[in-house]
Design brief:
- With about 230 residues, this protein is α/β, with parallel strands linked by helices.
- It is about 35% helix and about 20% strand.
- An 8-stranded mixed beta sheet has the order 1-2-4-3-5-6-7-8, sandwiched between helices.
- The protein is globular, with a radius of gyration of 16 Å.
- The protein starts with a strand and ends with a helix.
- About 45% of the residues are buried.
- The mean pLDDT is about 95.
């Protein structure tokens, strides 16, 4: 994987890895809860063939700061600051789970920064049913800040109701990737999510479950490549 670099964004230092030609169009990857930029290792090689790829460690994860203050609005604003601080312009934004919800909020809040949007197994901003419980942290050294998990559980149980209503502000061509019924994310929620976003396309990789890019990297990359090629054709 690429060497880890750091950039100051607001009150946090964010770590990231970068691959691809410097003059290639930028793509920013946002990982799920509990992972970091290394989580994209199985797909980044192909993506870096056509893009300058930036894989971010979101706050509370990996080598970025763990400030103890979390929430989707903070992750969204960190990603906005990351794109602006590095002067990336309009990016292809790809997110998984927590990172996908962050990407949705970013694309709705700052559509000027997103040229194309790929959301894999996003946790929709709808109240979890039944409500989630915060488990005890696992024993041993922490892989990420458990307060980030607490923030996700709280916001999954009582998300800002405005988030769902702002999805129609997304202007970027959007691909929603679902993993089929073996995922813990209700697949109807992903279909409803895609229907909320103007012109969004939904692709289901049957049997992949929640970790589509990890369990089925070839099918994930094929879906993303087809989508990006279709965007360029228009």
């Amino acid at each position: 994987m690429g060497d880890v670099q750091k950039v100051q964004v607001g009150d946090v230092q964010l770590a990231y890895r970068v691959w691809g030609q410097e003059d290639a169009p930028p793509a920013v990857l946002l990982h799920c809860l509990g992972e970091d930029g290394e989580d994209w290792r199985g797909v980044v090689g192909r993506l870096a063939g056509t893009h300058r790829v930036f894989a971010l460690d979101q706050r509370g994860h990996g080598r970025s700061d763990w400030p103890g203050e979390y929430g989707f609005a903070r992750w969204r604003d960190d990603a906005i600051g990351f794109v602006e601080t590095l002067g990336l312009g309009r990016v292809t934004l790809i997110g998984h789970s927590l990172g996908a919800t962050t990407a949705l909020l970013l694309a709705a809040h700052r559509p000027d920064l997103v040229a194309r949007l790929v959301v894999e197994e996003a946790a929709p901003p709808l109240p979890a049913d039944p409500p989630q419980q915060l488990p005890e942290p696992p024993p041993g050294p922490a892989a990420f800040d458990w307060q980030a998990k607490a923030a996700v559980v709280a916001e999954r149980n009582a998300p800002d109701p405005r988030w769902w209503d702002t999805l129609d502000r997304i202007t970027a061509p959007t691909l929603v990737i679902a993993g089929g019924p073996t995922s813990h994310i209700p697949q109807q929620h992903l279909a409803d999510l895609a229907a909320r976003i103007p012109g969004a396309r939904l692709v289901t990789v049957e049997g992949a479950g929640h970790l589509v890019h990890e369990e089925r990297p070839g099918e994930f990359l094929a879906a993303v490549a087809s989508f990006l090629a279709g965007c360029e054709a228009h």
